[in-house]
Each structure stands twice: as structure tokens, then as C-alpha cells.
Amino acid sequence: MTAIILSQAGLPLFVTAVALVDADGRVLVQQRSAHRSMAGLWEFPGGKVEDGETPEVALVRELREELGIETSSACLAPACFASESLGDRHLILLLYVCRKWSGTPRPLDSAGLKWVRPVDLHGLEMPPADKPLIGLLEALL
Ligand SMILES: Nc1nc2c([nH]c(=O)n2[C@H]2C[C@H](O)[C@@H](COP(=O)(O)OP(=O)(O)OP(=O)(O)O)O2)c(=O)[nH]1
């Protein structure tokens, strides 16, 4: 049954995202800008995996584009994932943890950034796919 649903809707949408963790154990989230779907919600930096990219390569690219920071695949530790319907597509959200990068994150493609303690993620308005990831992340950090 699942295979039939997926073939009707096309392949799932693979999105790769990261919990950047600073020296105080806080996590960076960014606010989705007004022109985007789910505008105003807080999310982990990242984006769609493009054709020919690994999730890690896509994430290194997204972090450069969205935050102006540099990291490498070796600094991305797979953490957990979410599987959620977006309506017309099915989202697979791959969440990594990263503690090592160069540069200072800037909101190059979002309405704003903030560093929050993992427990405080529960109080943020985040996309539905992110909700089950919060507890998993808390247990990992
Ligand atoms: N980066 C990121 N995307 C997320 C998270 N949670 C979540 O549902 N998403 C969804 C939102 C988008 O549908 C998709 C990421 O797409 P994107 O960031 O590359 O592109 P976009 O905002 O222009 O997406 P869209 O407006 O076309 O939906 O994954 C998250 O924590 N981080």
C-alpha cells in the first residue's frame, strides 16, 4: 500500500538539516521567511537534497548559502530522522549534529536566527516534522 501511495505522489522529498551545537550546548534555529511555505516557523538550517548530491554534500552547501559558514561532511554526525506528509509530497527529514564549523552564522536566507537550549525547542513553533525530533535531540545532546 505504501509503495502505491509513493508511486502516485512521486519520490519522497529528501531534506537534510542540522542542529549546530555551540560551546554552551545551545542549538541554532532559523525562522522561515515570509515568502516561504510555513512562514514564521522556526526550523533547523538545511534544505532539499539536489540530484546527484549526498545528504552531507547538500548540507555543507546549504550551510554556506543560508548561514555563510563552512563545515565538512566529516563534521556532520547523523542524529535522527522524521517521516511526515507535506500534503502533496512525503518528507524525509534527515537531522545531523554539527559542533565544528568556521565563521559566524548569519541569517542570509531566513527572517532571523537564535540559539536555544534543547529543552526550549519545545516552546518554539516548528514544522510538524520537527516536533518528534526535539525529544530525540535532547536525548542525544
Ligand atoms: N531546512 C528545513 N526544512 C524543513 C524543516 N522541517 C520541515 O518540515 N522542513 C521542510 C520545509 C520545506 O518544505 C522543506 C525544505 O525545503 P527548502 O528549505 O529547501 O526550500 P523552501 O523553504 O523553499 O521550501 P518550500 O517553500 O518550497 O516548501 O523541508 C527543518 O527543520 N529544516
Automatic annotation (TrEMBL):
Family: Belongs to the Nudix hydrolase family.
Principal EC category: hydrolase
Necessary cofactors: Mg(2+)
Positions in coiled-coil regions: none
EC number, UniProt record: 3.6.1.55
Alphabetically ordered keywords of this record: DNA damage, DNA repair, DNA replication, Hydrolase, Magnesium, Metal-binding, Mutator protein
Known catalytic reactions: 8-oxo-GTP + H2O = 8-oxo-GMP + diphosphate + H(+); 8-oxo-dGTP + H2O = 8-oxo-dGMP + diphosphate + H(+)
InterPro entries found in the cross-reference section: MutT-like, Nudix_hydrolase, NUDIX_hydrolase-like_dom_sf, NUDIX_hydrolase_CS, NUDIX_hydrolase_dom
GO molecular function: 8-oxo-7,8-dihydrodeoxyguanosine triphosphate pyrophosphatase activity; 8-oxo-7,8-dihydroguanosine triphosphate pyrophosphatase activity; 8-oxo-dGDP phosphatase activity; 8-oxo-GDP phosphatase activity; metal ion binding
Pfam families to which the protein is assigned, alphabetical: NUDIX
Transmembrane segments: none
Species for this entry: Tardibacter chloracetimidivorans
Domain of life: Bacteria
The Nudix hydrolase domain, residue ranges: 10-138
This protein's name: 8-oxo-dGTP diphosphatase
Gene3D superfamilies hit by this protein: Nucleoside Triphosphate Pyrophosphohydrolase (3.90.79.10)
PROSITE patterns: NUDIX, NUDIX_BOX
BP term (GO), one: DNA replication
